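#structure-requests
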Amino acid sequence: MEKVLVSDSELVTLYIRGNEKAFEKLVQRHKSRIYTTIYLIVKDQYVAEDLLQDTFIKAVDTIKSGRYNDEGKFLPWIIRIAHNLAIDYFRRDKRYPNVVFEDGSSVFNTLDFSEDSVESVQIRQETHEQLREMIQRLPDVQKQVLIMRHYEDMSFQEIADATGVSINTALGRMRYALINLRKQFNQRAPQYDKNFYLR
Protein backbone atom coordinates (compact mmCIF):
# COMPACT_ATOMS: atom_id res chain seq x y z
CA MET A 1 0.00 0.00 0.00
CA GLU A 2 1.24 3.46 -0.84
CA LYS A 3 2.04 5.61 2.24
CA VAL A 4 0.91 8.72 0.39
CA LEU A 5 -2.00 7.99 -1.91
CA VAL A 6 -1.43 9.70 -5.24
CA SER A 7 -4.63 10.16 -7.20
CA ASP A 8 -5.25 8.41 -10.50
CA SER A 9 -5.29 11.78 -12.22
CA GLU A 10 -1.87 12.66 -10.86
CA LEU A 11 -0.47 9.29 -11.89
CA VAL A 12 -1.79 9.74 -15.43
CA THR A 13 -0.19 13.18 -15.59
CA LEU A 14 3.12 11.76 -14.37
CA TYR A 15 2.93 9.00 -16.97
CA ILE A 16 2.25 11.49 -19.75
CA ARG A 17 5.38 13.36 -18.62
CA GLY A 18 7.46 10.22 -19.02
CA ASN A 19 7.25 8.48 -15.65
CA GLU A 20 6.71 4.84 -16.66
CA LYS A 21 6.38 3.71 -13.04
CA ALA A 22 3.29 5.88 -12.66
CA PHE A 23 1.35 3.65 -15.01
CA GLU A 24 2.67 0.57 -13.22
CA LYS A 25 1.08 1.95 -10.05
CA LEU A 26 -2.21 2.40 -11.88
CA VAL A 27 -2.00 -1.20 -13.07
CA GLN A 28 -1.31 -2.52 -9.57
CA ARG A 29 -4.07 -0.38 -8.10
CA HIS A 30 -6.84 -1.40 -10.50
CA LYS A 31 -5.89 -4.67 -12.20
CA SER A 32 -7.94 -6.83 -9.82
CA ARG A 33 -11.15 -4.86 -10.42
CA ILE A 34 -10.56 -4.76 -14.18
CA TYR A 35 -9.79 -8.49 -14.33
CA THR A 36 -12.97 -9.29 -12.41
CA THR A 37 -15.03 -7.16 -14.81
CA ILE A 38 -13.62 -9.10 -17.76
CA TYR A 39 -13.80 -12.55 -16.16
CA LEU A 40 -17.46 -12.18 -15.22
CA ILE A 41 -18.23 -11.79 -18.91
CA VAL A 42 -15.90 -14.28 -20.58
CA LYS A 43 -15.85 -16.91 -17.79
CA ASP A 44 -12.36 -18.05 -18.82
CA GLN A 45 -9.21 -17.33 -16.80
CA TYR A 46 -6.80 -17.35 -19.73
CA VAL A 47 -9.03 -15.28 -21.99
CA ALA A 48 -9.57 -12.80 -19.15
CA GLU A 49 -5.82 -12.48 -18.63
CA ASP A 50 -5.28 -11.83 -22.33
CA LEU A 51 -8.04 -9.24 -22.44
CA LEU A 52 -6.63 -7.60 -19.31
CA GLN A 53 -3.33 -7.08 -21.13
CA ASP A 54 -5.20 -5.82 -24.20
CA THR A 55 -7.04 -3.35 -21.98
CA PHE A 56 -3.83 -1.85 -20.62
CA ILE A 57 -2.26 -1.78 -24.09
CA LYS A 58 -5.24 0.13 -25.45
CA ALA A 59 -5.15 2.49 -22.47
CA VAL A 60 -1.46 3.19 -23.04
CA ASP A 61 -2.01 3.83 -26.74
CA THR A 62 -4.85 6.24 -25.98
CA ILE A 63 -2.90 8.15 -23.34
CA LYS A 64 0.30 8.37 -25.37
CA SER A 65 -1.59 9.54 -28.44
CA GLY A 66 -2.99 12.46 -26.45
CA ARG A 67 -6.59 11.26 -26.76
CA TYR A 68 -7.13 10.66 -23.05
CA ASN A 69 -9.40 13.33 -21.59
CA ASP A 70 -11.68 11.92 -18.94
CA GLU A 71 -11.41 14.62 -16.27
CA GLY A 72 -9.43 12.41 -13.92
CA LYS A 73 -11.94 9.54 -13.90
CA PHE A 74 -9.39 6.91 -14.87
CA LEU A 75 -11.10 3.84 -13.39
CA PRO A 76 -14.52 4.23 -15.07
CA TRP A 77 -12.70 5.02 -18.31
CA ILE A 78 -10.48 1.93 -18.29
CA ILE A 79 -13.39 -0.22 -17.06
CA ARG A 80 -15.28 0.85 -20.19
CA ILE A 81 -12.32 -0.24 -22.32
CA ALA A 82 -12.21 -3.64 -20.57
CA HIS A 83 -15.96 -4.05 -20.82
CA ASN A 84 -16.00 -3.27 -24.54
CA LEU A 85 -13.18 -5.73 -25.24
CA ALA A 86 -14.95 -8.41 -23.21
CA ILE A 87 -18.26 -7.75 -24.98
CA ASP A 88 -16.49 -8.06 -28.34
CA TYR A 89 -15.25 -11.47 -27.20
CA PHE A 90 -18.72 -12.28 -25.86
CA ARG A 91 -20.20 -11.60 -29.29
CA ARG A 92 -17.57 -13.60 -31.13
CA ASP A 93 -17.82 -16.51 -28.73
CA LYS A 94 -21.64 -16.42 -28.68
CA ARG A 95 -21.87 -16.41 -24.91
CA TYR A 96 -24.96 -15.23 -23.05
CA PRO A 97 -25.88 -13.48 -19.77
CA ASN A 98 -28.07 -15.03 -17.12
CA VAL A 99 -31.38 -13.17 -17.11
CA VAL A 100 -33.35 -13.41 -13.87
CA PHE A 101 -37.13 -13.66 -13.63
CA GLU A 102 -39.45 -12.02 -11.08
CA ASP A 103 -39.33 -15.04 -8.75
CA GLY A 104 -35.53 -14.97 -8.75
CA SER A 105 -35.10 -17.98 -11.01
CA SER A 106 -32.97 -18.00 -14.11
CA VAL A 107 -34.50 -18.55 -17.51
CA PHE A 108 -32.26 -21.59 -17.72
CA ASN A 109 -33.41 -23.00 -14.37
CA THR A 110 -36.83 -23.60 -15.91
CA LEU A 111 -35.14 -26.22 -18.05
CA ASP A 112 -33.64 -28.31 -15.24
CA PHE A 113 -34.35 -32.02 -15.50
CA SER A 114 -33.74 -34.89 -13.11
CA GLU A 115 -31.47 -36.47 -15.66
CA ASP A 116 -29.36 -34.91 -18.39
CA SER A 117 -30.87 -36.89 -21.20
CA VAL A 118 -29.89 -36.19 -24.77
CA GLU A 119 -33.24 -34.48 -25.29
CA SER A 120 -32.95 -32.21 -22.24
CA VAL A 121 -29.41 -31.18 -23.13
CA GLN A 122 -30.53 -30.35 -26.63
CA ILE A 123 -33.45 -28.26 -25.33
CA ARG A 124 -31.16 -26.27 -23.04
CA GLN A 125 -28.67 -25.67 -25.83
CA GLU A 126 -31.42 -24.46 -28.15
CA THR A 127 -32.81 -22.13 -25.48
CA HIS A 128 -29.35 -20.73 -24.79
CA GLU A 129 -28.96 -19.98 -28.48
CA GLN A 130 -32.43 -18.41 -28.72
CA LEU A 131 -31.78 -16.12 -25.76
CA ARG A 132 -28.43 -15.06 -27.20
CA GLU A 133 -30.14 -14.17 -30.46
CA MET A 134 -32.83 -12.19 -28.64
CA ILE A 135 -30.23 -10.24 -26.68
CA GLN A 136 -28.33 -9.44 -29.86
CA ARG A 137 -31.53 -7.93 -31.33
CA LEU A 138 -31.82 -5.39 -28.51
CA PRO A 139 -30.65 -1.83 -29.14
CA ASP A 140 -26.97 -1.52 -28.21
CA VAL A 141 -27.53 0.69 -25.15
CA GLN A 142 -30.17 -1.69 -23.76
CA LYS A 143 -28.07 -4.75 -24.49
CA GLN A 144 -25.06 -3.18 -22.75
CA VAL A 145 -26.93 -2.39 -19.53
CA LEU A 146 -28.64 -5.79 -19.42
CA ILE A 147 -25.33 -7.64 -19.75
CA MET A 148 -23.59 -5.44 -17.18
CA ARG A 149 -26.43 -5.90 -14.68
CA HIS A 150 -27.34 -9.57 -15.09
CA TYR A 151 -24.02 -11.01 -16.22
CA GLU A 152 -21.46 -8.82 -14.46
CA ASP A 153 -23.74 -8.21 -11.47
CA MET A 154 -22.84 -4.52 -11.46
CA SER A 155 -24.86 -2.01 -9.45
CA PHE A 156 -26.75 0.68 -11.33
CA GLN A 157 -24.32 3.25 -9.93
CA GLU A 158 -21.42 1.26 -11.37
CA ILE A 159 -23.25 0.92 -14.69
CA ALA A 160 -23.91 4.66 -14.76
CA ASP A 161 -20.25 5.43 -14.05
CA ALA A 162 -18.97 2.93 -16.60
CA THR A 163 -21.27 4.11 -19.38
CA GLY A 164 -21.16 7.82 -18.59
CA VAL A 165 -24.90 8.28 -17.99
CA SER A 166 -27.12 9.06 -15.00
CA ILE A 167 -28.56 6.31 -12.82
CA ASN A 168 -32.04 7.17 -14.05
CA THR A 169 -30.91 6.70 -17.65
CA ALA A 170 -29.31 3.34 -16.78
CA LEU A 171 -32.51 2.24 -15.02
CA GLY A 172 -34.61 3.31 -17.99
CA ARG A 173 -32.44 1.41 -20.43
CA MET A 174 -32.65 -1.70 -18.27
CA ARG A 175 -36.43 -1.42 -18.02
CA TYR A 176 -36.86 -1.19 -21.78
CA ALA A 177 -34.32 -3.98 -22.35
CA LEU A 178 -36.31 -6.34 -20.15
CA ILE A 179 -39.61 -5.30 -21.72
CA ASN A 180 -38.26 -5.91 -25.22
CA LEU A 181 -36.58 -9.18 -24.23
CA ARG A 182 -39.72 -10.43 -22.50
CA LYS A 183 -41.79 -9.70 -25.61
CA GLN A 184 -39.38 -11.68 -27.77
CA PHE A 185 -39.20 -14.54 -25.28
CA ASN A 186 -42.96 -14.83 -24.87
CA GLN A 187 -43.42 -14.97 -28.63
CA ARG A 188 -41.03 -17.90 -28.87
CA ALA A 189 -41.70 -19.64 -25.58
CA PRO A 190 -45.10 -18.71 -24.08
CA GLN A 191 -44.73 -21.41 -21.43
CA TYR A 192 -42.19 -19.14 -19.71
CA ASP A 193 -44.57 -16.15 -19.55
CA LYS A 194 -43.23 -14.40 -16.44
CA ASN A 195 -42.24 -10.86 -15.58
CA PHE A 196 -38.52 -10.23 -15.60
CA TYR A 197 -37.11 -9.21 -12.28
CA LEU A 198 -35.42 -5.79 -12.23
CA ARG A 199 -33.01 -5.94 -9.35
